[in-house]
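QUALITY CONTROL LOG
STEP: pairwise intake check
CHECKER ROLE: data steward
CRITERIA: each record must contain a sequence immediately followed by its structure tokens, with no blank fields

ENTRY 1 OF 2
RESULT FIELD BELOW
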Amino acid sequence: MAAFIRAGALDVSREILSQSEVLDRNRHQANQKTTIVSLVALLLLLSSPVFLEGGKRATGILVQTAPRAITLTTNNWQVTTDLLTRNGKDIAFASYSPLWKFQRKLVHSALSMFGEGAELLESIICQEAASLCKTLTLEHDTPLDIAAEMTRAVTNVVCSLCFNSSYRRGDSEFEAMLQYSQGIVDTVAKESLVDIFPWLQVFPSKDLALLKKCVEKRDQLLQQQFTEHKETFTDDSVLDLMSSLLRAKLNMENNNSGLLPGMELTDDHLLMTVADIFGAGVETTTTVLKWSVLYLLHYPEVQQKIQEELDQTVGFDRYPQLSDRQHMPYLEATIREVLRIRPVSPLLIPHEALTDTRIGEYDIPKGARVVINLWSLHHDEKEWDKPGEFNPGRFLDEQGNKLYSPSPSYLPFGAGIRVCMGEVLAKMELFLFLAWSLQRFTFSVPEGETLPAPEGKFGVVLQAPKFKVKATLRKAWQGLEIDQ
């Protein structure tokens, strides 16, 4: 495949159509969508998109240092993201600026309260993993929608981080959050016509109406948390991200230390920053867990091998710990393979050229959008052996004992200044939730249920199809209980 696709409408159309076919994997639907996809491709051409597919070039763009010729800027043409972020007052979609750098620095500082491998954060995740295992025990050998249970577990980890709170199973507020989250995932950043031609928003749109309703519900929940934190805030009670951001804002106001004239950290910036961490932290990790379980159902031999590794490394007298990661290369390789074959975000958030620049032999004009085609990077036949096959062994050495990176075309969390801030947390959650679950249970397809093919639904994340599982307690764990 070419490194860039920008030569004309036909080339862009082929690339967009290819993405649609790969992501949907439904030949009948793909044929029906050809005309629509070609039209969208032609419309995208008007804004000069550059699709970047080469692994080394993609890495170079993402990690380049100042002066930054190409970086992400607010997509003013995207109505949906503006609604989601109150016109770019978050971190993920905001323009590169001193205020953006300050916001990101604040979040990094808040996350460092927990730190990678810190006992506090690990204990929070393990507590939720134990709760998940308790639910699996109660639903033993019955068809279960594990997606909702994993979503609740991940949500509680992020809630502890953001708000120092959590949800119980069946909580009405949690159910409301699930609904608005799904609505946002289904409607944001899908290159819809209203994003390309903003003036179309004056006409009735079901997707836009749904998004506005979901964002309104999200903002109500966020505002409730924000108000409670402001009312109870003291400098000695900084126990979560929202309190940390409040303290930073108050310190700026008290010290009169604004960033630049006319630039300030408003309540909207705080709320949208927390919304970023909360929304992205829940949806992305949950999506990877769903894909992981689905692939384990399709490849039971992989699940069995992980369980054998757990038995040898952890045993039956304790639960998995974060320190076990370095001794469990096969589970780690499986996680990496899931992230490769089904990247959470097949197309990374668009970047924009701030000046005329050059990438390799290609001239990139100022204002051109640069899109990292992560799906192409992770499925490039020049970089990966049989990329369409699920094979955790590709991330292991010949002896199968050590992890290694077989290709530079592997960027599941992005790179550079826009690298996912939750990468460390996500990796901790993926390991601990899967290790705890597979140590005690074997996942299988319930009788009478059909296992769906691993075909994704494209949106702001690549959504896994719905499916149910049967969690069977392993023989070694029947009647066995250990203290946490």
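ENTRY 2 OF 2
RESULT FIELD BELOW
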Amino acid sequence: MIVLSKAGVLDSAHPLATDVPLTAGSWPVTVPGVAAGDDCFIRRFWQC
């Protein structure tokens, strides 16, 4: 799962992508409109 994190809060209720293979070197996502700033991150998670 790929999610957006803003101000340290994960938006896991609205993932940017799901079922992304761990071996994928890259994966296209569309980042939603957010206010400009330097506190946004895209996080990659996988389930074991």
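INTAKE CHECK: passed for both entries
DESCRIPTIVE NOTE, ENTRY 2: The mean pLDDT is 84.
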